[in-house]
Specification:
48% strand, Immunoglobulin-like, 3 domains, 30 strands, five-stranded antiparallel beta sheet, 301 residues
Length: 301
């Protein structure tokens, strides 16, 4: 019995020692915001938690690469303003109990500050869609997290305007083509990236386009009146402009979907059409299949 009592006492003593000296009692240093890489000009805050007693029982200081950044004080947090590349290093906090001068050191936190100003990459994820649907653009800062994005759009005839703000997932769905840019922001106070390069977003509608002819006679003679019609299937409620090509040359964009002309020697050839929304010159359907018009050598007169 005496031996068993001694063993039990030893186990209890060991358990108490582990509870006092184990990881639950270790000081903890955290950094906010917590990114893998920081950039020149950002702000960070170190927060030191002694995990023992009250916060005001301790005095704190921050150590970088083994050197004190400041003397002990009662502030549990320490802020670094406008980061520089020289701030790259390994950080640790040390706490000193005010009543006994007992000290504790925290874990080590690495901080990396990049000299390169971040610049988002803007791409058009999807390019084709049925009429009435949206396409997706993506804005991202590579190898970095925590960004919100602001989006801008302009055309060749209009000034740039902001179209979306505080978009956290880096994607935007747009129904209009145009010239887009984006910028990233994060942190408090807010840190901004450079603005992205311009992206010319052209939306291609997948609706089928067909050319129809009236009269639809097998032979066409000089002097006859021909009417070609450009039809966008499934886009009947959309206001379109229509572009016609004859043997590869674009004639013009017009609001009317019909093109009427008098057949002549120069009328023979392959005719195609495509359409774009009247309010969006950065949109287009696919080109229709070619329609071949052959004139008879005789005149209808």
């Amino acid at each position: 019995m005496k031996k068993m009592g001694h063993t039990l006492f030893s186990e209890l003593f060991l358990l108490c020692s582990l509870l006092y000296t184990g990881r639950a009692q270790d000081a903890v240093l955290t950094i906010e915001p917590s990114w893998s890489t920081y950039f020149v000009g950002e702000f960070v805050t170190f927060i030191c938690d002694m995990r023992e007693g009250r916060n005001d029982d301790w005095e704190y200081k921050i150590i970088r690469d083994g050197r004190d950044l400041d003397s002990y004080d009662t502030h549990q947090s320490y802020k670094l303003y406008s980061l520089q590349t020289s701030y790259t290093g390994e950080y640790q906090c040390r706490g000193r109990r005010r009543s006994s001068d007992v000290t504790k050191d925290s874990n080590i936190v690495s901080l990396t500050v990049s000299a390169n100003q971040p610049k988002p990459r803007l791409v058009q994820v999807s390019k084709t869609t049925p009429v009435g649907r949206n396409v997706t653009l993506s804005c991202s800062v590579e190898n970095s997290a925590g960004w919100k994005y602001v989006w801008f759009r302009r055309t060749s005839n209009t000034n740039e305007v902001q179209v979306r703000t505080n978009d956290v997932n880096g994607f935007i769905r747009v129904s209009q083509g145009g010239i887009y840019r984006c910028i990233g922001s994060r942190g408090e106070p807010t840190f901004y990236t450079d603005i992205s390069d311009e992206l010319i977003c052209v939306i291609t509608f997948t609706n089928k386009v067909v050319v129809m002819r009236q009269p639809n006679w097998p032979q066409i003679f000089r002097g006859e009146t021909i009417t070609l019609t450009c039809e966008v299937q499934g886009g009947e409620t959309t206001e379109w402009e229509y572009g016609w090509r004859r043997s590869g040359s674009l004639t013009q964009w017009r609001y009317e979907k019909t093109w009427t002309f008098t057949a002549s020697e120069s009328s023979s050839g392959d005719y195609t059409c495509k359409s774009r929304r009247r309010d969006d010159p950065y949109s287009s359907t696919e080109t229709s299949e070619a329609f071949r018009l052959l004139l008879s050598g005789k005149s209808c007169l």
